[in-house]
Amino acid sequence: MKLRCAVIVFALLPGAASAAGLLADVFQDHVVLQRDADVPVWGEAEPGAPVNVRFADEDSETVAGDDGRWRLELPARAAGGPYTLTVQSGEQSQRIDDVLVGDVWLCSGQSNMEFPLRLATNADYEIGLADDDGIRLLSRTGLPRIRSPRPAASRASWKFVPPTRGHPKRGWPRFPT
What we know:
3% of the residues lie in helices and 38% in strands. The chain has 177 residues and is mainly beta. The chain is globular, with a radius of gyration of 17 Å.
């Protein structure tokens, strides 16, 4: 499944903590967070450890549970950015740059959603329509096809999709403007 943001995003699933260990893997440079709504942020830290999250010069705090998992909600914010998201717990810290706040579109469906847009019959036309540098695409690989009580490890990466930065790797649904 894919996540496409700031105009479209493809299926945001709870992710495992990233290599840095504090934030789930969906929180990376170039992430887009939903505007005008409280935004959940989560990850893992040492059990019982305080966790401080700083976003756009506002601080939020929580404590990791007995299993090390933590979650909090950032207050609603209007569209904007770029911002920085920083998480700190004990000696660990993780910084995410170029965070945008905008519209996040969740899309899921059939395997054809992974069809590379560059191979479509009208690829040049469709790619030419992607002229907004706020459009981002989240690609997730390595997702298991089974249910699990804990999020499974996967690899996630946020990418710019406008033609000025390179062709989109995947297609996306069309929404009326």
